[in-house]
Amino acid sequence: MAAPLADVLDRAGAVLAELREVDLDGLVDDTLSDALLSMERLRGGLDVAEARVLSRWDAQRSWQSSGAKSGAAWLAWKQRVPIGIARQRLRHARALRTLPAVEEAWAAGDLDRAHVTTLLGARTARTTEVFDGDGHARLLGIARSYGFVSFKAACDRWSMVVDADGAEQSAADDRDAREVHLSQSFGGMWFGKITLDPISGEIVSSTLQGIERELFEADWAEATERLERPPMILDLQRTPAQRRADALVEMAVRARTAPSDGRRPAPLFTVVVGLETLCGPILELFNRTVLTPGTVAPHLTEADVERIVFDGRSRVLDVGRQRRFFRGALRRGIEVRDRTCFHDSCDEVPQRPEVDHIHEASKGGETTQDNGRYGCGYHNRWRQTHPDPDDDPDADPGSPFG
Predict the structure, then answer these.
(1) Structure confidence at residue 396 (pLDDT)
(2) Which of 125, 161, 261, 369 is paired with 315 by a 20 to 30 Å CA distance?
(3) To 10 degrees, the CA torsion angle through 42, 43, 44, 45?
(4) Cβ atoms of residues 372 and 355 within 8 Å
(5) Is residue 54 over pLDDT 80?
């Protein structure tokens, strides 16, 4: 016979109290890392246990006698959380009633609530039948095997394949939601807000970052000359936020001073042919934001297009073995193949990317696609002091797309 719920909660509370009092002094890194992973699994189990209780509580409308308008309103009132958070918890609890595989993965700590939110975002009125069939099982496998960015992209691609019309409508809604507000206060200061669709936002963001990098290098050079030593970040004359503001102004100045007959910069679209993907065709920005064909089509009349051909293992045509540095088509092929830093903990597109040898060139490593990998500057430097014994010329650089 199962123990009463109140008794179980009392014991759980006592264990948590004991856990809070554990002496952490002297624990080594591996022990602390293992503890964090164990706590993540426990958090998943606790979230699912809460969802089961919440589901029954909601089904019985246990909140109704309090006078609250809804279960979400009661949760927001009693737990003092935003109403949006309360509604999210209820949505998750209701979904678990019919998705036992999701419940099992969450309880095991394989998923976080962020995964569940993203997963259920792909479950719309038009995709429910396919999702509740084998669709969510495939996405769960990706969530267990890859980083969150890859999982989110897989969910977006799955939605685009299963409900192409809905994906196009959603993309059109995003485009229609673009807006810029800029107003001047009575004191003369300017305040603004900007909302852009994925392509427009990437154009603005990448341009702004390029100018900000120029300003950072100028600040660094000025501080070095002024202090007669390598400066620290706090020694620079401008904060990052100030440099971004100045970069925005500089971007406007350059737009005003550009020659009227100059060539308008064109976006670059990379067409990837024959690349195996996690789920359906791939159509993404370089930062892995998934796009619909309808979103891209209006830009093609003014865009530059490049083609990169891969074979069955995401292998590009080898363009030479004797080079010391990765350049040209070889570098571009590796960039498009990998797109994120090689280190497992780093799943963002590097701001200042580098293509480095897996097996070091100084030790006989060849400058080929098989021996190259995409990385951020930090991890390319990190590997010099943390050599990987598995690094060898025959190692597969790996990619969630190949």
Answers:
(1) 46
(2) 161
(3) 50
(4) yes
(5) yes
Within its chain, how far is the Cα of 103 from the centroid?
23
What is the average per-residue pLDDT within 204-221? 93
Cα dist. 250→200, 201, 255, 376, 401 in Å?
19, 18, 9, 27, 39
Assigned token pair, 25: 């002094």
- Measured between alpha carbons, how far is residue 225 from residues 11, 204, 211, 213, 229 in Å? 64, 32, 21, 18, 7
Q: pLDDT tens, 282-308?
A: 566 666 677 777 777 676 666 666 666
Taking the model in full, what pTM does it have?
Answer: 0.69
Alpha helices (H) along 1-28:
5-20
**Pair 63, 70: CB distance under 8 Å:** yes
Rounded to 5, what percent of the chain is helix, strand, coil?
55, 10, 35
Nearest to 180 by CA among 168, 196, 165: 196
3-state SS assignment for residue 181: strand
Best CA proximity match to 109, nearest among 144, 133, 67: 144
DSSP per position, 342-387: SSTT--S--SS-EEEESS-GGGT---SSTTEEEE-HHHHHHHHHS-
Cα distances from 30 to residues 34, 35, 224, 287, 393, in angstroms, run 6, 8, 40, 32, 30
Q: Longest Cα pair distance anywhere in the chain, in angstroms?
A: 83
Q: Work out the number of other CB atoms within 10 angstroms of the CB of residue 357.
A: 22
Lowest-confidence range among 1-10, 17-26, 73-82, 131-140? Answer: 1-10
